From TrEMBL, chain A:
Native organism: Actinophytocola xinjiangensis
Pfam families linked: ABC_tran (PF00005)
MF GO annotations: ATP binding; ATP hydrolysis activity
Name used for this protein in its record: Sugar ABC transporter ATP-binding protein
Domain ABC transporter residues, every copy: 5-245
Record PANTHER family: CARBOHYDRATE TRANSPORT ATP-BINDING PROTEIN MG119-RELATED, SUGAR ABC TRANSPORTER ATP-BINDING PROTEIN
Keyword Cell wall biogenesis/degradation in annotation: no
PROSITE patterns reported for this sequence: ABC_TRANSPORTER_1, ABC_TRANSPORTER_2
Top-level taxon: Bacteria
Keywords for the protein's UniProt record, in alphabetical order: ATP-binding, Nucleotide-binding
From TrEMBL, chain B:
Protein location: Cell membrane
Database matches in InterPro entries: ABC_transp_permease
A Pfam match: BPD_transp_2
Organism: Actinophytocola xinjiangensis
Residues spanning the membrane: 30-47, 59-78, 108-131, 137-159, 192-211, 241-263, 275-308, 320-340
Protein's name according to its UniProt entry: Xylose transport system permease protein XylH
Length: 259, 349
């Protein structure tokens, strides 16, 4: 199977600061690629390159086998890469269906009489969200009244509905409680089962491990490796993420303090 | 709000009973509507001639030009921005029209066209500066407000040697333009200013655009959360610039109505009105932080304004009391809006 996205030794510098160095991984259709790392590890930089917010300086980014370089988030979106940001996903005071279609509203009529097709909008949104397994009481309610998990799900349903091939989820569980995180991971799995390639960014290996097929661990801008699930255990992943040997050294020191 | 009781109707059982009432009070303009009724009843009781066709013609006239501006300012505020130059813009456009028609001898229609282009230019400049610099529109438009105020006085004095321009009545095209912008309609023996029709038309059009078109959707979005809007592909900069241009065009419309009606314009006119527009929009349910509000509410806010200002005259009180009334009204409206908005946003789970 050809990968949807192939990240090949990509690098990015901001002035003299090297944010990302020789990072490689792949995203396959129907699979979840997890990007793990502590704060400042380069997760956001990688995601911004995939989403078209920034451009890479070195290495190659291939979409469906073709070399690409996105000029803008809109271009990435048009090529089928949708990003759901943790806090940027929705406009809280707007209704669910208006959020769902924001930027791609269905219209009827032509010229100056072109107007929103509200009935289609409401019903399509309700159906698309129901297909993801969320039964919303009322698509006219402001998104701000939904729980954090439901909000993420509206954003995921939107990306799926608008034909995304790749779904990038930027720390979807960071601000959520245990139960809500589980809910979001379930919708993520739904998107995966529908054949989307999913990129999950997180610093929580316990969220990544159950749903992931592949784990890219970043630290200080460099890759510690891109592991297939069969090649790594949760314990090993956690250790890698926390900085491996460094943590052991720290533990040793802490033991020294208490002992 | 989970209810376990079974209900026969096919709607979702998790919608609370009384959903209609909830939905009604969740609308931003409801507070203003109640306020307008209170003011109407109050002045009808204290002043005999207030609630007559003649009385209505007076307070509707007062509300009309304010209402046109309040509607445009409400759109801009929903889009998350302010325009402090909106008040002085009504004078600037009137001055451009008047100077071109009297001093340069242009046909009034041509003068109106030039001042419209001028207004579009200033609006675009306001918007471009705001989206380009990322500075608060409060400061940027305060700058254009002061600059326009200086230009109004400076240019008028240079061209006419005084601080007012009059004599547009003699200009070519005055009759037809005056008919469109400043004539009287007689209904049932009472004369109503045509500006009332403009007000209703502008309100209807703006309300339709806001809730029924993509542009309206984008207006809510750029005011509610510009980064989210940008992330899903809404042209944030274009939307905001167009909203600033809309306010400027409304200023042009009001300036044109004023110059053709009174045939004289003072160079220092319009200063301080910008806050009245914002007050009317806020009374009508607009949030100062953007992303929420109503055009119809803003029109009702202007109506409250006009009714109170004229009602105080009808009741034979000193007009000094108007500002006190306005302050109380504004505070009351903000408190009511706040409560209603919380209700609208309340987590229903």
């Amino acid at each position: 199977m050809n990968p949807l996205i192939e990240v090949d030794r990509i690098g990015k510098s901001y002035g003299s600061v090297v944010a990302l160095r020789e990072v490689s991984t792949v995203v396959n259709a129907g699979e979840v690629t997890c990007v793990l790392g502590d704060n400042g590890a380069g997760k956001s930089t990688l995601i911004k390159i995939l989403a078209g917010v920034h451009q890479h300086d070195t290495g190659r980014l291939r979409l469906d086998g073709q070399d690409v370089r996105f000029a803008s988030p809109r271009e990435a979106l048009d090529r089928g890469i949708a990003t759901v940001h943790q806090d940027l996903a929705v406009v809280p005071l707007m209704s669910v269906w208006r959020n769902f279609f924001l930027g791609s509203e269905p219209t009827v009529g032509a010229g100056p009489l072109r107007r929103l097709d509200r009935r289609t909008g409401r019903e399509t949104a309700r159906r698309a969200i129901a297909d993801m397994g969320i039964d919303l009481r009322d698509v006219e309610q402001p998104v701000g009244t939904l729980s954090g998990g439901e909000r993420q799900c509206v954003a995921i349903a939107r990306a799926v509905h608008f034909g995304a091939k790749v779904l990038i989820l930027d720390e979807p569980t960071a601000a959520l409680g245990v139960k809500q995180s589980g809910v979001v991971l379930r919708y993520l799995a739904q998107a995966r089962d529908r054949g989307l390639g999913v990129v999950l960014i997180t610093h929580n290996p316990h969220h990544a491990y159950p749903v992931g097929n592949r784990f890219l661990v970043l630290t200080r801008g460099a890759s510690l490796g891109s592991f297939e699930k069969a090649d790594i255990t949760l314990a090993e992943l956690t250790r890698q993420m926390a900085g491996g040997e460094e943590l052991e050294a720290l533990e040793h020191e802490l033991r020294g303090v208490s002992g | 709000m989970t209810t376990t009781t079974e209900r026969p109707d096919p709607t979702d059982e998790r919608l609370a009973p009384g959903g209609v009432v909830n939905r009604l009070v969740a609308r931003p303009e409801v507070g203003a509507l109640l306020g307008a009724l209170v003011v109407l009843v109050f002045f009808t009781v204290v002043a005999d001639t207030f609630f007559t066709t003649g009385g209505a013609a007076t307070w509707l006239d007062d509300s009309a030009t304010l209402g046109i501006m309040a509607v445009a300012v409400a759109l801009l505020m929903i889009g998350g921005e302010f325009d402090l130059s909106a008040g002085v813009m009504t004078a600037s456009t009137a001055l451009v029209t008047a100077i071109l028609a009297t001093e340069a001898g242009l046909n009034v229609w041509l003068a109106l066209l030039v001042s419209l282009v001028f207004a579009l230019g200033v609006g675009a400049l306001n918007g471009w500066l705001v989206v380009r610099t990322g500075l608060p529109s409060f400061i940027v438009t305060l700058g254009t407000f002061l600059a326009l105020q200086g230009l109004n006085l400076g240019v008028t004095r240079l061209v006419t040697g005084s601080v007012q321009v009059s004599g547009i009545r003699a200009a070519e095209g005055y009759e037809s333009a005056g008919f469109v912008f400043a004539s009287w309609l007689t209904i049932d023996g009472t004369s109503f200013q045509i500006s009332i029709l403009w007000w209703l038309g502008v309100t209807g059009l703006a309300a339709w655009v806001l809730v029924r078109t993509r542009f309206g959707n984008w207006t809510f979005a750029v005011g509610g959360s510009a980064p989210s809007a940008r992330a899903v592909g809404v042209p944030v900069a274009r939307t905001k610039i167009l909203l600033f241009m809309t306010t400027a065009v409304a200023g042009w419309l009001v300036g044109s109505i004023n110059i053709l009606r009174f045939t004289t314009v003072q160079a220092n006119q319009g200063i301080g009105l910008e806050f009245q527009f914002i007050i009317a929009a806020v009374i009508g349910g607009c949030l100062l932080t953007g992303g929420y509000g109503s055009v119809i509410g803003a029109a009702i806010g202007a109506l409250i304004f006009g009714m109170a200002r004229q009602g105080i005259v009808f009741a034979d009180w000193n007009s000094d009391w108007f500002m006190l009334f306005l302050g109380i009204m504004l505070l009351g409206a903000v408190l009511v809006n706040n409560t209603f908005r919380r209700r609208a946003e309340r987590v229903r789970s």
